[in-house]
Specification:
It is built from no helices and 8 strands.
């Protein structure tokens, strides 16, 4: 928020999204890109996302969306909580089946 967080998105055998989140007065980082129409955002064989994170002991949300508007659009985004451990770098496997539909960052009933 307000340009305090820093991130970069690179192709590196997959997609590499790296950066740091400043939680003073905000606290998010995002990456957006265009996909060809009718292209699958994730291959059908994909079961989840592998995330390498250096934690600060807080819990974060990982949010996926189709894009094309604000977080308050009519289309849901999908989110999962990701707890972190202070000062620990670890790889977490975020299973797609654990993502829940949400609107405006708030989970909705399934």
């Amino acid at each position: 928020m307000g340009g305090r967080s820093k991130s970069v998105l690179r192709k590196s055998g997959g997609l590499l999204f790296a950066g740091s989140i400043n939680t003073n007065g905000g606290g998010f980082a995002s990456a957006r890109g265009e996909a060809p129409e009718r292209a699958a955002l994730l291959p059908s064989t994909c079961r989840g996302l592998r995330v390498k994170v250096r934690g600060d002991g807080r819990q974060y949300k990982v949010l996926l969306s189709k894009g094309g508007g604000s977080p308050f659009s009519a289309a849901p985004s999908w989110q999962v909580d990701m707890p972190t451990r202070n000062g620990i770098t670890e790889v977490q496997q975020l299973e797609l089946r654990d993502f829940v539909p949400s609107f405006g960052g708030s989970p909705m009933d399934r």
